[in-house]
Amino acid sequence: MGETIRIQVEGGEMSAYVARPAAAKAPAVVVLQEIFGVNAVMRDITDGLAEQGFLAICPDLFWRIEPGVDITDGTEAEWKKAFALMNAFDAGAGVKDIAATIARIRSDPGCNGRVGAVGFCLGGQLAWLTATRTDADAAVSYYGVGIEGLLDEGANLRKPVMLHVAEADGFVPPPAQAAIREGLAGQPLATIHTYPGRDHAFARVGGEHYHAADAALAGERSLAFLRAHLGSA
């Protein structure tokens, strides 16, 4: 369904997977990857957003470390590689690449000028930084890791952001969740949804902690949020 394009970014060129909706013009959504690269899960999410009427794009944010990473959560070796990639990843450079992606897709003839972002895991952290450091019109973060240490970024929040928090997230423990809720209390641009009993990556189809009902609920909330702030085709 999708196509691969190249985006000029600071220091080089990055690939991105693009899925187009039926409409000639539509709002765009940048899909921000987990630690497994632009794999089948991310491409399926990108395709799914296109089916919902968005011009969707998933950039290869690990390109500075290793272009074309496409692994799964199925083996110990893949997990080891994924964590090594995450630890080597420069979030600051990544956000600049996201900003370049936003500019590129906003200029696409198929874009109506509105661009949002949705990210998962590492991408969930990047969705928060996209909301605070770029000109994206809205952002959605699924179980973003490390946001509790980036709450000072909230002073730069100018556009709405939605956070999906898994209550039993092993990577975002209760003290971190409490810090996020406290840090964003009274922030009208931030919406937080908590999912009782859910663990990290509860929306990853086929994953160990996948929960169909709550994944569907989070998806419905995200779509309504994106349509409210980006419009529709």
Automatic annotation (TrEMBL):
It comes from the Bacteria. InterPro entries: AB_hydrolase_fold, Dienelactn_hydro, Dienelactone_hydrolase-like. Residues 14-229 form the Dienelactone hydrolase domain. SUPFAM superfamilies: alpha/beta-Hydrolases (SSF53474). Transmembrane segments: none annotated. Gene3D superfamilies: alpha/beta hydrolase. Pfam families: DLH. PANTHER family: ALPHA_BETA-HYDROLASES SUPERFAMILY PROTEIN (PTHR46623:SF6), CARBOXYMETHYLENEBUTENOLIDASE-RELATED (PTHR46623). This is Carboxymethylenebutenolidase. The lineage of its organism: Bacteria, Pseudomonadati, Pseudomonadota, Alphaproteobacteria, Caulobacterales.
